UniProtKB/TrEMBL annotation:
SUPFAM superfamilies documented for this protein: lambda repressor-like DNA-binding domains (SSF47413)
Domain of life: Bacteria
Cross-referenced InterPro entries: DUF5753, Lambda_DNA-bd_dom_sf
Protein known as: Transcriptional regulator with XRE-family HTH domain
GO molecular function: DNA binding
Organism placement in taxonomy: Bacteria, Bacillati, Actinomycetota, Actinomycetes, Streptosporangiales
Pfam families noted in UniProt: DUF5753 (PF19054), HTH_31 (PF13560)
Span of domain DUF5753: 106-278
Length: 284
């Protein structure tokens, strides 16, 4: 599947790199774009910045070609590549239908083409491993009484799992704090059964971080590290209350990769984790 989210990121990154190579500021590019287009309105420093960060709703191929002219990108094949990126980045993924419950849906767009996904969760089961009953219970709990969109949230959560049905499914590795398992009640026991089942798939690894292990490197937050086929750089996803953060700089990704390595080393092995989940299931 071609993810418009990933294409948007690539296009914005390339435009930023072209400007950096040209030695021009965003303000200077906007002024030159005004002069070349003959329009006094429509181009500004903030517009150039938005194009370089992916913060745009509609993108004109003419605007991109104008920028390429300013950056002296004249090779026909290279310009055709940009035109294809604009077309692919402007498409809508299936998740656009659920805009009212997803917002941008950027996480799903990134999952759609990720080659590997590493997830640490402290209090909940990772979204890609949730059963329908668990996802519904989570949606109801988080809605705080406003249950109008619960069905849609559950539907989206189940559709997300289609990434594992791809011809080249991502390698998925989850470290789950034992506390998340302790919150699973008898009526949600199918969630534990599902974890046991999927943990035996070749592309999915599940490790449990035991409560008895004490303090660890990821006490303060849960996070997801996504990697992609070249040339896309990895992304770290953080969810804080109602906000989503995407970290892309090398130092940030390196820090969270190291943090994941630490919690993974502190967790039980895959086989030990599967045994712990089975024990929790039998105790319900």
């Amino acid at each position: 599947m071609v993810s418009p989210t990933l294409r948007r990121r690539r296009l914005s990154r390339l435009l930023f790199q072209q400007r950096e190579r040209s030695g021009l500021t965003a303000k200077a590019v906007a002024a030159e774009a005004k002069k070349r287009s003959g329009k006094t309105r429509g181009w500004s420093e903030s517009k150039v910045n938005r194009l370089e960060t992916g913060d745009w709703k509609r993108l004109s191929i003419d605007d991109v070609f104008l920028l390429l002219n300013i950056y002296n990108v004249t090779d026909p094949d290279e310009r055709d590549g940009y035109a294809e990126l604009v077309k692919e980045a402007s498409r809508k993924g299936w998740w656009a239908t659920y805009e009212n419950v997803l917002g941008t849906g950027q996480l799903i767009g990134l999952e759609a083409e990720a080659s590997s996904i590493r997830s640490y969760q402290s209090m909940t089961i990772p979204g890609l491993l949730q059963t329908e009953s668990y996802a519904r219970a989570m949606a109801i709990a988080s809605s705080m009484g406003d249950a109008d969109d619960v069905d849609q949230r559950v539907e989206v959560r189940m559709l997300r799992k289609a990434v594992f049905s791809r011809a080249n499914p991502p390698a998925f590795w989850a470290v789950i704090d034992e506390a998340a398992l302790l919150h699973i009640t008898p009526e949600l026991s199918d969630q534990l059964e599902y974890l046991v089942e999927v943990s035996q798939r070749p592309n999915i690894g599940i490790q449990v971080l035991p409560v008895a292990g004490g303090l660890h490197a990821a006490m303060t937050a849960h996070f997801v590290i996504m990697e992609f086929p070249m040339p896309e750089p990895p992304v770290v996803y953080l969810e804080v209350a109602t906000e989503e953060l995407y970290l892309e700089s090398e130092p940030q990704v390196r820090q969270y990769t190291r943090r994941f390595d630490f919690v993974q080393a502190s967790a039980l092995s895959v086989d030990e984790s599967r045994a712990l989940i089975r024990n929790r299931l039998s105790s319900l």
